[in-house]
Specification:
Strand order of the largest sheet: 1-2-3
Helix content: 55-70%
CATH topology of the largest domain: Ribonuclease iii, N-terminal Endonuclease Domain, Chain A
Number of strands: 3
CATH architecture of the largest domain: Orthogonal Bundle
Distance between the termini: 57 Å
Shape: globular
Largest sheet: 3 strands, antiparallel
Number of helices: 12
Strand content: 5-15%
Number of domains: 2
CATH class of the largest domain: Mainly Alpha
CATH superfamily of the largest domain: Ribonuclease III domain
Order of helices and strands: HHHHHHHHHHHEEEH
C-alpha cells in the first residue's frame, strides 16, 4: 500500500467506517487545487457544504439533550464554537486527516496539510461523505464520538462568538457598532490570507490575519475585545 493509501486507511480506522465507495472518500479528501482544465479532479467543496449541515444538526441535537434548561442564546453560542473552523481542524488532526489529503506537491511544501482552514473544510467533507454513504445515524454517531472531548469542555462565550460579544460591549459603552475594514488579501485563490482591521469609536483599532475574511474578522474582534476588557 502506498503512503497516502495507508493514511486513508488510518483515517477510516479512526473514523470507524471503511467506505465502500472509494471514489466518494477520495473526493472528500481532494483539494480544489488538484488538476486543471480537462484534468481537473472532483474536489471536496460540495461534500463540505453537506457535511457542515450534518455536523451542525448532530451537535445541535446533542446540546439540546445535554442542556434541557438552556435558552436558545446559550445553545447558539455553544454550537457556534463547536462547529467552528478551529474545532473542525482539531478533530481533523485527531483523524490524522492531513496525511490523507490529495494536494499538489507545491501546496504540501507550503504546509497546506497542517493549515487549519484546509483541515476544517476536509473534515466537514468527510462527514458529508459519511452521511452520503451510510446515512445520518452513522454520521451522527461518528460526530458525537469524535467531538466528545470538545463537548465536555466549558465554552467561553467571548471566544465562541467574539464579533457578537464585541458588538454587545460597544453598545453597553454607548458606542456605535464595530467597523471592519479589509486591509489586505494575499496568497493564491485556494489558500488566501486576509488581513482585517476592526475599530470601535473612541479606541485604537486591532488587526488580525485569517484564512478567510470571516476568520480574520473574528480574530480581530477577539483581540480588540480582550484588550479593552483588560484595560
Amino acid at each position: 500500500m502506498d503512503r497516502r493509501g495507508a493514511a486513508v486507511a488510518e483515517l477510516e480506522r479512526r473514523l470507524g467506517h471503511v467506505f465502500a465507495d472509494r471514489a466518494l472518500i477520495d473526493r472528500a479528501l481532494t483539494h480544489a487545487s488538484v488538476g486543471q482544465g480537462a484534468r481537473k479532479q472532483p474536489d471536496y467543496e460540495r461534500l463540505e457544504f453537506l457535511g457542515d449541515r450534518v455536523l451542525a444538526l448532530a451537535i445541535a441535537g446533542e446540546l439540546m439533550a445535554r442542556e434541557p434548561g438552556a435558552d436558545a442564546g446559550a445553545l447558539s453560542k455553544q454550537l457556534h464554537v463547536l462547529v467552528s473552523g478551529p474545532a473542525c481542524a482539531r478533530v481533523a488532526r485527531s483523524l490524522k486527516l492531513g496525511d490523507a489529503l490529495r494536494l499538489p506537491g507545491g501546496e504540501t511544501r507550503r504546509g497546506a496539510r497542517t493549515q487549519d482552514t484546509i483541515l476544517a473544510d476536509a473534515c466537514e467533507a468527510v462527514i458529508g461523505a459519511l452521511f452520503e454513504e451510510a446515512g445520518f445515524d452513522a454520521a451522527r454517531g461518528a460526530v458525537l464520538r469524535l467531538w466528545a472531548p470538545l463537548l465536555d469542555e466549558p465554552v467561553d462565550p467571548v471566544s465562541a462568538n467574539p464579533k457578537s460579544e464585541l458588538q454587545e460591549w460597544a453598545a453597553a459603552e454607548g458606542r456605535p457598532p464595530p467597523a471592519y475594514r479589509l486591509v489586505d488579501r494575499a496568497g493564491p485563490d485556494h489558500a488566501p490570507l486576509f488581513t482585517v482591521e476592526v475599530a470601535v469609536e473612541g479606541g485604537a483599532p486591532e488587526r488580525a490575519v485569517g484564512g478567510s475574511r470571516q476568520a480574520a474578522e473574528k480574530a480581530a474582534a477577539l483581540a480588540l475585545l480582550l484588550r479593552e476588557r483588560s484595560a
